[in-house]
Amino acid sequence: MLDLSGKTAVVTGGSSGIGFAISRRLAEAGANVLIGSLAPERSAELVEAGFSVAFHSTDVSCPQAIRQLADVAVERFGRLDIWINNAGVYPLKAIDAIDAGFWDGLHAINTRAVFLGAQAAQHYMRRQGDGGAIVNLSSVCGHRPMANHCTYDASKGAVLAMTRSLAKDLSAFKIRVNSISPGLTATPGNLAPQLLEQHRQNNVLGNIPLGRAAEPWEIADAALFLVSPLSSYVTGIDLLVDGGWLLHGS
To answer: Which residues form a coiled coil (predicted)?
Structure first.
């Protein structure tokens, strides 16, 4: 049920952090994987391990680059079955420090690119006629606000609403659309000094019932479930992978 042999997957931002873990899980399940990212980073590890993985330099803030990424996947592997909208940025600014350029730049990556990725993917999935699976990466911050997160929280909340709308629109074509909301995850980005201090101030670990951050592979396992036949009757949902963070009152 977790065999993805013959399937082709695109993972944006798939060469580091959660995206790399997702790329690896899909490759381990037998999928052909095209990583679209600004830098190859760890993607070569998967090629060297013998997986059917390729890298294509992609700036998801550029609409044309996203369309090209979908085209390259089909040109290289012959079809497109899975699209993971993982690429995202996580800058923090207080309300008075946010200007239009900052707002637009973050949403170009965290929000607009998610829609354009889904749009490009469904174009090929509809033509193939046998459906597909799209997974969007939201965040626990789309459910619960945090200090100095207004722009980021808004982008992830938009992903939740977008996922439901896309699921409704694309269900007629057997294309399933779901999202994942990770909680605190042990990625290089979350270990940056600014974010570590933010997490300390917000007592993040104290608010997580399981008492620890997630490992990237734990988010990747959720993605694997949502694109596999195990979730064939699941669409329009958000899967929280947060260690129970939302169970806590603050």
So the answer is: none
CA 208 to chain centre: 22
245 inside domain: no
Assess if residue 182 is contained within a domain. Answer: yes
pLDDT class for 189, splitting at 50, 70, 90? confident
| Alpha-carbon span 149 to 219, nearest angstrom | 22
What's the pTM value of the predicted model, to 2 decimals? 0.95
Give mean pLDDT, residues 184-197. 77
| DSSP 8-state secondary structure symbol assigned to residue 249 | -
Residue 200 counted as domain residue: yes
Q: Which residues lie below 8 Å from residue 209, measured CB to CB, with a gap of 6+? A: 243, 244, 245, 247, 248
**Residues annotated as part of the active site:** 152
Question: Side chain identity at 148, as an amino acid letter?
Answer: N
For residue 19, the domain's CATH number is: 3.40.50.720
Domain total in the chain: 1
57-73 per-position pLDDT tens digit: 999 999 999 999 999 99
In this prediction, residue 224 has a pLDDT band, given cuts at 50, 70 and 90, of: very high
Residue 202, domain member (yes or no): yes
Mean pLDDT along residues 145-165:
95
Burial class of residue 86 in the structure, from the number of CB atoms within 10 Å of its CB (0-12 exposed, 13-18 middle, 19+ buried): buried
